[in-house]
Amino acid sequence: MKSLRAVAAVAATAVLLAACSSEPEAPAETPTSIPPATQTAAATSAGQPVGHASASDGKGDGKDADLVAVRLDGDDQGLTVKYTLSKQLPIWTAETAMLMVYAASLDGNHSWQLAVKWINGEPGVFVFDNTTAQQANLDGRLQVAGKSVTVTYPAAFVSALGPSFKWGAYSTLDGADMDACPNNDGALNLASIPFPSV
User: Fold this and answer.
1) Cis link prior to 182 (omega < 30° from 0)?
2) What's 76's domain CATH number?
3) Which range marks the domain in which residue 190 is found?
4) Can you give the pTM of this predicted structure?
5) Would 68 be classed as within a structural domain?
6) pLDDT tens digits, residue range 1-12?
7) Count of domains in the chain?
8) Smallest Cα–Cα separation from 164: which of 80, 107, 81?
């Protein structure tokens, strides 16, 4: 079985290498955010992903990165991913932590990673095209508030997904696979949920 770690390792890990946060843990009620992305993208548009899709996982098997639910909302501005965890993600204490949506075209010939990765508490948001091995690092569009993490990917960076695709969500801590949403009982079926939901 190919591990999620092996899949994610293809993407460059140097999304942000800033100094460590001096706070041991952020207060659950205080959102943290990063300024909006300023980059431009020359993505080939296949049609903007518009609509909604969600998945849930009630097994409680992800330890400190346990995913409870993930929701995708797409409109003409971009794609927003909201991760809900069973507890606050230990981004200030783990060496690395990552939340990722793995998306694939309906024919399975093209795939992407839409991710946020923390290195020593500092976040980096990126889109990695697995087919072309091209990565776009974004300046922000991230909010962390208690047990939820919300990331917005601008339209220019997700238009290549097209109006319909398959997806799945994953979490890692310190390089180890922690959870999948929906839970796949050990089988790494990276993209199985249709977007938008029927």
Assistant:
1) yes
2) 2.60.40
3) 4-16+55-195
4) 0.77
5) yes
6) 345 545 554 453
7) 1
8) 107
**In the 3-class helix/strand/coil scheme, how is the chain assigned residue by residue?**
CCCHHHHHCCCCCCCCCCCCCCCCCCCCCCCEECCCCCCCCCCCCCCCCCEEEEEECCCCCCHHHCEEEEEEEEECCEEEEEEEECCCCCCCCCCEEEEEEEEECCCCCCEEEEEEEEECCEEEEEEEECCCCEEEEECCCEEEECCEEEEEEEHHHHHHHCCCEEEEEEEEECCEEEEEECCCCCCCCCCCEEECCC
Q: For residue 27, is it within any domain?
A: no
Under-70 pLDDT residues of the chain:
1-47, 140, 184-189, 198
